[in-house]
UniProtKB/TrEMBL annotation:
It comes from the Eukaryota. It holds the Pfam family RVT_2. PANTHER family: GAG-POL-RELATED RETROTRANSPOSON (PTHR11439), RLK (RECEPTOR-LIKE PROTEIN KINASE) 8, PUTATIVE-RELATED (PTHR11439:SF455). This is Transposable element protein. SUPFAM superfamilies: DNA/RNA polymerases. CDD domains: RNase_HI_RT_Ty1 (cd09272). Residues 44-168, 170-251 form the Reverse transcriptase Ty1/copia-type domain.
Length: 430
């Protein structure tokens, strides 16, 4: 089995700006951004200078440059970030755990749905250099060598980006250093932000408008989210801004195969579903998806206020053995909180289903697992739900068939797959 790295496949860089230090220092904007970053680190007591010794495992550092933009594409500010070279760290010596808490997209949509339903204020924060518990020593940053102790090293008291444990000590529901807070009382919300600012260097970005690539619009008591800027950048990168829009993301009755069409001579620009050997038919299909995005670039999700006791509904479906290469089926489901869409999935099943019934039950099981997690999450958030959860499926037999018919030879092997769904159904949860 070959890995992606062995095939020369690497994740593309999100930011293509040069990270070479000396050309950047010639520009006033970047020099100002670097000085601002250093001042923020020093103000936050991120490190202290100590003499170097042979017992220290010295971690290098470098500058990363990025232009941060508004949702309309205009420049917000120039950002220089000092990052540690975490690959210099040794496990068990410089760090023990590398877990970083990041919010799931479904949770973001749940919070937005609850906020618009309860009239909560939504506020966006950015934590500057928030992040250590282990002893980590870092070389002094280029361009800012301490003139008094040029041979000293930096003993880190708080983590820098790039370290293995950089965001381990954050105890909020956030995405690394981007935070969205919601509250029913604006005064208490500001008190919370002030309290947080007493421990971390917080940048108040005001009411929520742009978060993790999502543009958030407040319209007549509703919230609308879209990815207009991201879609525009994607089309610009693919040189398809002036292309003819497509009405559907995929042509009817098209099944992509690993053998259809000729191999692409330079596949570096298209490596997604068929990573190891993309072909011309795959490239045509991917361009059609982009042309579909071109025609629907201004569409998004709208969250409307819901009733006091919201209902959770799920819809699951599956195609049977449609993959021409593996004959595996594809699971699909969508889940709504009231009328607000909060979670969805389309994923190829791990095993080959022996019947269409089995593929449908496999999809039902995945949808049931997701609704179970969402129910637990909403319970933690003190959200009242109406039970049972409605789960709509396309199985041709009635649900009363579930507990009694697994002794049949054609369906005996499905029992383990459907056990979770059966238990939830018997408990009248779904």
């Amino acid at each position: 089995m070959r890995t992606r790295l062995q095939d020369g496949i690497q994740k593309p860089k999100l930011h293509t700006l040069s990270n070479i230090l000396f050309p950047a220092t010639k520009h006033t904007e970047w020099r100002h951004a670097m000085t601002e970053e250093i001042n923020a680190l020093l103000k936050n007591h991120t490190w202290s200078w100590v003499p170097s010794s042979l017992s220290q495992n010295l971690v290098g550092c470098k500058w990363v440059f990025r232009i941060k933009r508004h949702s309309n594409g205009s420049i917000e500010h120039y950002k220089s970030r000092l990052v540690a070279k975490g690959f210099h760290q040794r496990p068990g010596i410089d760090y023990a755990e590398t877990f970083s808490p990041v919010v799931k997209p479904a949770i973001i949509r749940i919070v937005l749905s609850l906020a618009v339903s309860h009239g909560w204020s939504l506020h966006q924060l950015d934590v500057k250099n928030a992040f250590l518990q282990e002893d980590v020593y870092m070389a002094q940053p280029l361009g800012f060598i301490d003139p008094i102790h040029p041979s000293y090293v930096c003993k880190l008291h708080k983590a820098l980006y790039g370290l293995k444990q950089a965001s381990h000590t954050v105890f909020l529901l956030l995405y690394v250093d981007d935070i969205v807070v919601a509250g029913s009382d604006s005064t208490h919300l500001q008190q919370f932000i002030s309290l947080l600012g007493g421990h971390f260097d917080i940048k108040d970005l005001g009411p929520l408008s742009y978060f993790l690539g999502l543009q958030v619009l407040h319209k007549y008591g509703t919230l609308h989210i879209n990815q207009l800027k991201y879609a525009h950048d994607l089309l610009h990168k693919a040189n398809l801004l002036n292309s003819k829009p497509a009405s559907t993301p995929l042509a009817a009755k098209v099944l992509l195969s690993i053998s259809d069409g000729a191999l692409i001579s330079n596949p570096t620009e298209y490596r997604e579903l068929f990573m190891s050997a993309p072909r011309t038919s795959h490239l045509v299909a991917s361009k059609r998806i982009l042309r579909y995005i071109k025609g629907t670039i201004d569409l998004g999700l709208t969250f409307t206020p819901q009733t006091a006791a919201a209902s959770l509904s799920a819809y699951s479906d599956a195609d049977w053995a449609r993959c021409p290469n593996s004959r595996r089926s594809t699971t699909g489901y969508v889940i709504t909180l009231g009328t607000n869409l909060i979670s969805w999935c389309s994923k190829k099943q791990l095993t080959v289903s022996r019947s269409s019934t089995e593929s449908e039950y496999c999809a039902l099981s995945h949808a049931c697992a997701e609704t179970t997690w969402l129910c637990s999450l909403l319970h933690e958030l003190c959200v009242r739900l109406r039970f049972p959860v409605q789960l709509f499926v396309t199985i041709s037999v009635p649900c009363t068939w579930l507990p009694i018919q697994f002794s049949m030879p054609a369906t005996r092997h499905i029992e383990l797959t459907i056990t979770l769904s059966m238990k939830r159904w018997l408990l009248e949860v779904i």
